[in-house]
Amino acid sequence: xxxxxxxxxxxxxxxxxxxxxxxxxxxxxxxxxxxxxxxxxxxxxxxxxxxxxxxxxxxxxxxxxxxxxxxxxxxxxxxxxxxxxxxxxxxxxxxxxxxxxxxxxxxxxxxxxxxxxxxxxxxxxxxxxxxxxxxxxxxxxxxxxxxxxxxxxxxxxxxxxxxxxxxxxxxxxxxxxxxxxxxxxxxxxxxxxxxxxxxxxxxxxxxxxxxxxxxxxxxxxxxxxxxxxxxxxxxxxxxxxxxxxxxxxxxxxxxxxxxxxxxxxxxxxxxxxxxxxxxxxxxxxxxxxxxxxxxxxxxxxxxxxxxxxxxxxxxxxxxxxxxxxxxxxxxxxxxxxxxxxxxxx
Length: 345
Fold this sequence. Notes:
Layout: H1 30-62, H2 67-73, H3 76-99, H4 107-126, H5 132-135, H6 140-150, E1 154-155, H7 165-184, H8 193-221, E2 223-224, H9 238-241, H10 248-265, E3 276-282, E4 288-293, H11 296-300, H12 307-310, H13 319-324, E5 328-334, E6 340-344
Antiparallel strand pairs: 1-2, 3-4, 3-5, 5-6
Helix pairs in contact: 1-3, 1-8, 3-4, 4-6, 7-8
């Protein structure tokens, strides 16, 4: 999943004081981010559930010797831990596909995996000692472990640890309402397969939906640490608002021109062990009119690559002219090995 197409025009100096720098997710990208982060959370949860069920049903037929392992993992505590770790790993990865433009560390996946697994086990253990509603507070562990990753990129925001609790509380309340409603219409939830499916799926889907929405909104509210500032965005952005060149032959031609142009001017060696990734906009005449760094390494080493010198932008033209100009968008990667990659965005 590609990061959202917003930009900063390179013909104008990047302002260190811009207010757009303050947010982890720039305001121009927040609607995009909330939509796709929530969708990624739901998709990850569904994929995790389906794959886990398929593996469980087919493990014995594929590996007959795996039966003892299955019996061990079927123990209540280990079963909850296994499901939690599996779900957390896949949900964390699908979320990271959207989040990586703002928090590039894969530790988000690890934190979500460990946090989800631990929260699931603790919630089950607490349910034997406290009311079920209070047991949902165990999901504070998911927020707490994720916070160890997030705090490296943002200022303050310790309230994040409580976000995963809110969907669980909502699910508990919804569960009670559904139980009462099913009994009212004569469905025995203990014996009816339909009742059990409704009691599990409906609250869980809502819980994951609300979790994705709340986490996405929380990430949009964070303010970035000063030492991890991103290049500010401006509204409106040509890479967002300008018409898109879609003709395949024309895009291919422009990609070749862009590659040759950058390759001719890329003289300085980049002493960075990460790829520098940029989103670049070209006109039909193959003029580079705007670009934006996508990852943190690209921000840090922007001066070491030739894009800023190649921008063909007449400062005397009104901004609306650039917004009305059709652009082809390209993903440009400067690899640590010295390899240049150009592909359509």
